[in-house]
Every structure is written in structure tokens, then in C-alpha cells.
Write a structure and sequence with these properties.
It is a single chain. The protein is α/β, with parallel strands linked by helices. It has one domain: Vaccinia Virus protein VP39 (Rossmann fold, 3-Layer(aba) Sandwich). 27% of the residues lie in helices and 25% in strands. The strands form 2 sheets. A 7-stranded mixed beta sheet has the order 5-4-3-6-7-8-9. Strand 1 and strand 2 form a beta hairpin. Helix 1 runs antiparallel to helix 2. Bound molecules: S-adenosyl-L-homocysteine.
Length: 226
């Protein structure tokens, strides 16, 4: 059925609109209840963020391979992390790990300003093109090492890390606004990782575990090739 998608246009065919609504319904069944989050996910054409051979799986609720050996997250995980982040329309958000740009596009529908950092130049360039084709001028993609955060645009109301960290990088905690929230998968590469939500309160950091996840690792430095 997904062969009926129009691959050139961001406007959905009726078949694609149906697939997108079906995915939103599936996420609701999985426990994601925030309407703003569900509708933001439904508005983003996920096929745009995939290579041509995988576009037929765009609205399956699964993680999929993208360029540079990386992964676009499972939609349920995008929903869970975005819901936990509790993004308000006036917020400035930082994402570490642009990957395909899908999560950044979802955030672009929810926040005032989104900055996303990627260590592969190829991925950063592709994501930038996709986001501009989708007319999301409030999302900026930066090429570099996200472990350092983005000091020139700090502080951020919300920070989301979409690669697994052994330890939360200090720079990210420092660049989080007072009262801000940060969501990050913590744990070893290839092992059990916990999704953790941190909140910076006047009494210090409050931490909440949101469950087990599996992400590609957060690696130091910008990638030297690609
Ligand atoms: N959010 C993405 C999926 C991310 S996959 C999406 O919606 O498609 C994780 C990404 O984090 C990969 O692209 C990887 O290259 C990137 N990454 C890993 N370490 C990084 C770092 N230190 N700085 C920036 N990006 C990093």
C-alpha cells in the first residue's frame, strides 16, 4: 500500500495520510497521550527522513537504519521522549544527535526554537535539506560535537539527547535553564540503557527513570570522515 506515496511532495496522498493517522493511533495505544505530541508526530512525513528503499516502512512503528550506520528511532520512543520533555510553545530546545532530522522536525512543531547538533557532516547536511523542504525555519542543524552542547545559544529550556551516554556530559547540564528538563538514554553501548529525565530544580537535579531503551552511542568529537 505504501507504494502509493508520492515521494516528491511533502503533501500526503490519502494512503499516506491514513498510514500516518494509523501510526498516531498505535502510539496512543502504546500510552502516549499528549495530544500536541501525537499531532506533531502525525504532521511529520517520516518517509522524507528515510532512504528510498525503506520508505515503504516509514509508518511502521520500528527503528530503521539511516545513512552513516546510524538509526532513526522507533516512533514510540520519539513519542515517549517528546512527551517526557514537556515542550511548551515558547521553549528553546537543544537536541544532540540529529540523525535523520525526524525528531528535530517533531520538536519544530512544538517549540519556538530548536537547535540540533550532529557529528556526521553528511547527516547534518541531509537533515538540513529535509527540514528546509518541510518549511521548518525554526529548526537549525549544527555540525559538531554535541557533547559540548551549544554554548552560543545556551541556556536551553529543554535538552534531548538521542544517543546513549555512559554519563551525562557536564556541558549539557550547565547549558540547561533553571527549571529546565533534559531527557537522555544512559548506559553502555550495546547494553541495557535507561531513559532518564532530569529536572533542574532549586533543590538540585531530580531524576526519574522512564524505562529501558536501545540507542546508538554518543561518541566524542565530530566524525572525521563522511
Ligand atoms: N534523533 C535522530 C536519531 C538519532 S541516532 C532521528 O530522529 O533520526 C543518534 C545520532 O547521534 C547519530 O546520528 C549519531 O551520529 C549522533 N551522535 C553521536 N554522538 C554525537 C555527538 N557527540 N554529537 C552529535 N551527534 C552525535
Amino acid at each position: 500500500m505504501n507504494d502509493d506515496f508520492d515521494h516528491e511532495s511533502p503533501e500526503p496522498t490519502p494512503q499516506e495520510a491514513e498510514a500516518r493517522a494509523g501510526l498516531a493511533l498505535e502510539l496512543r495505544k502504546q500510552g502516549i497521550r499528549d495530544r500536541r505530541v501525537l499531532s506533531a508526530i502525525e504532521r511529520v512525513p517520516r518517509r522524507f527522513f528515510l532512504t528510498a528503499n525503506l520508505q515503504k516502512h516509514a509508518y511502521d512503528n520500528t527503528a530503521l537504519p539511516i545513512e552513516c550506520g546510524q538509526t532513526i528511532s522507533q516512533p514510540t520512543v520519539v513519542g515517549m521522549m517528546t512527551e517526557a520533555l514537556d515542550v511548551k510553545p515558547e521553549h528553546r530546545v537543544l537536541e544532540i544527535g540529529t540523525g535523520s532530522g525526524f525528531q528535530a522536525a517533531v520538536l519544530g512543531h512544538l517549540a519556538d526554537e530548536v537547535h540540533s547538533v550532529e557529528r556526521y557532516r553528511t547527516l547534518a547536511d541531509l537533515a538540513r535539506d529535509r527540514l528546509s523542504a518541510l518549511k521548518l525555519p525554526n529548526v537549525t542543524v549544527h555540525f559538531g560535537d554535541g557533547m559540548l552542547g551549544l554554548a552560543e545559544h545556551a541556556p536551553f529550556d529543554r535538552i534531548i539527547v538521542t544517543a546513549a551516554a555512559d554519563k551525562v556530559p557536564q556541558a549539557l547540564m550547565e547549558q540547561l535553564e533553571d527549571g529546565g528538563k533534559l531527557v537522555v538514554p544512559v548506559g553502555p553501548s550495546g547494553g541495557i540503557q535507561e531513559l532518564v529525565l532530569y529536572e533542574k530544580t532549586p533543590n538540585g537535579l531530580v531524576e526519574r527513570n522512564l524505562g529501558a531503551v536501545r540507542f546508538v552511542p554518543l561518541l566524542p568529537g565530530a566524525a572525521s570522515s563522511l
